[in-house]
Amino acid sequence: MARTRELLRNLDIPLLVVTLLLVGFGIVMIYSATYGSGAAGLRELYRKQALWAFLSLGVMAGAIALPNKVFNGFAYLIYGFAILLLIVTLSLGVKGRWLAIGPFSFQSSEFAKIATAMALARYLFGRKQLTPGRVMTCFVICLLPMLLVAKQPDLGTSLVFAAILFPVLYQAGLRPLYLFFILTPLINVLCAFWWVSWGIFIVVLLIAIYLSRHSFATAVFLIAVNLGIGIAVPVLWGRLQKYQQERILSFLDPNRDPLGAGYQVIQSKVAIGSGRIFGKGFLQGTQTKLAFLPKQHTDFIFSVVGEELGFLGAMSVLLAFLFIIWRGIRIATSTKNRFASLLAVGLVSIIAFHVFVNTGMAMGILPVTGLPLPFLSYGGSFLMTSMLLVGLLLNVGMRQHEY
After folding, report:
1. Which residue in 271, 262, 276 sits closest to 293, CA to CA?
2. Which of 252, 269, 330, 342 falls 20 to 30 Å from 33 in CA-CA distance?
């Protein structure tokens, strides 16, 4: 009993309260986003979300109650089960993404994110020295679910696994320069379309190689690989068909196709911009009520907030997410258990990536990838995994003095 009281004293009440406030606020905004809709099913979504929130509280409580050693001991088993679910989803799932169990359906990819963070933390738990082979193993742990999710197809969710990997490697002790070298192929591809940006990238790469004091053979390998990519990208781009190039360019710049691929982003920017400082008022959003804004209760719920509650409302939501991320980082850096610390970093990375991509997408500064906003977007399985995630963070925080 004394042990339970001690754990409860360590419970991060501010993190719990802000999370529950966001969940409640999300239900209210889903009600607003579907208010006045002609479809009866849409009008009932906020009630379904409230039911999922109630069920998710039980999942969160379970995650808080179980000791860290349970997740550490079963991490590989949980990861294997998640991979199996992804494979079954590809074979038997609805539209390649959903698994149905009776009246309920869920996205197995949501569970796979947390399972992957657990597996990474478990693998690095007893391996304090990061050799190239161990780093490669971490890549494989993330690459397997990433490829399975990408095949569903769900590009946005597949990118989350990469977002988990790099912060966890950094927390495990990988030097920032080595992280940069790992990311150079991706950076190279993005810079290779303009010779000035590519030239700057090569100069930065050479400086990084010099500072890292790599062997001559390693330096030559890094330079050769990046020069090869820089030469190959423009050549491969030129071999694409015109319509293929247009699809990629429209994905990166929605204004190229305002009535097609860019329609969602343009309407979202109009909604947020029209909200100004104080917003149009609750239930008063014209873009929302006239159905100009697609997926307004899921991927573009932040646009509804911006239109109806204005800059102040949108900033309040962002500050709430920043608070959650800050508390998560604080928990990760203060815990004495290596597994718990690495797990917390992976979990915080999931939240941060979702918030960054979703809000960036709504404001038109990032391409549309279909990533929902934690706690606010409609979706039962996503809400449940988001609350499970916070439950695990609270678990780590309660037991931060345990080794």
Report:
1. 271
2. 252
